Amino acid sequence: MLYVFWREERREAEEMSGKKKATLEEKFQLLRSVTKSNEANKTSILVDASKYIKDLKDKVEEAAVAAALANSSSSSSTATSVGSAMAAMVSVSWVELDSGGSGFRINVSMERSRPGLLVSVLEALEDLGLNVLDAAVSCADDAAFRLQALGSGQQGGSGSSVDVQMLRQAVLQAISKCLNHDDE
Fold first, then answer.
1. Beta carbons of 88 and 109 less than 8 angstroms apart
2. How many CB atoms lie within 10 A of CB 133?
């Protein structure tokens, strides 16, 4: 009698296992079709899904930066946060320098860095005729990007300072340019 009971429980366990396996196979096929994976191996399907999610995240970041460029008419001394995951944040403020002149303090942060991002931002500052006096930078591919810089706010020594909004816009455009260049 005990043997019959054990066989019955084992049969039920095998049925449940078979149902779970079928459900899991169905989920993998769904994942395979959504990510357009041509792989049959479950591990390869998961790798393709991971790449697909990364690509989607990159597209969301790029769209968020583009939206920030379109909406950059907000107050220039406040931070511009883009996207729900803080894809890019740029804040600019004017400060008095120890030398007696005026300067700018800029903070740029992104959830992930891109190759050439730092160069693009620094070139944007240079194109405006601004000098970076001091900077702290943290950037590496696929890691967070942070730039805190203090610079001279005079353009070519002519005495006319660059508008904060113009500076913020130039940095956002440099970020967008870097992201778009990365797609090509």
1. yes
2. 14
Q: Fill in the amino acid letter for 164.
A: V
**Residues 25-77 pLDDT 10s:** 888 888 888 888 888 888 888 888 888 888 888 777 777 666 665 554 443 43
Please name the residue that has the structure tokens 């440099």.
174
Q: Where are the domains of the chain?
A: 2-59, 76-183
Identity of the residue numbered 97? L
CATH code for the part of the protein at 76-183: 3.30.70.260
70-103: per-residue pLDDT in tens? 554 443 433 444 433 346 677 777 777 777 777 8
Q: In 10 A of CB 171, how many CB atoms?
A: 25
Check: CB of residue 88 under 8 Å from CB of residue 68: yes
Angle in degrees, 0-180, between the axes of helices 42-70 and 2-34, rounded to the nearest 10: 40
| Residue 160 neighbours by CB distance under 10 Å | 11
Rounded distance, CA 159 to CA 22, Å? 74
Q: How far is CA 32 from the centre of its chain?
A: 26
Residue type, 142: D
Going by C-alpha positions, the residue among 87, 140, 148, 80 that lies closest to residue 114 is 140
Question: Which one-letter DSSP state was computed for residue 145?
Answer: E
**Token code pair at residue 176:** 């967008």
